[in-house]
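Researcher: Go.
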Amino acid sequence: MIKHIVFDIGNVLMTFAPETYFIRWFQSEEKTHRVCSRIFTHEAWEKYDQGIWMLEDLYAVYHDAYPDMVEETDIVLQNWLQLMQPMHETDEECRLWNLYSFQYQSGFCGLFEGNPAVLSTGGRCGIVL
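Model: Structure:
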């Protein structure tokens, strides 16, 4: 019996627009772009996103790589989950499929107790486990 469907999170079930969110912290578009580019395009972020590294691992990596922005790095790492908001379109699709009970853990999101299926609509996809 299929019990779980796992989705990619960023820009699938949740928005992922770091610069839009962190502009309120850094006040300048240039600074916000510089900080977010360094954090979210670094190979360490990819390892974190894949679940290979934990969030705690990123602090030392980023502090060593970018000693000029230790405070900014800490702000991003401590607050990045708040930048994601549910995507309206995906929420509607999940309701159509009778999926509910959203849970997020280690870069994956699962919707439990719904209709078992592999979803692929509008560029969004889920994997049945």
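Model: The two ends are 9 Å apart (CA to CA).
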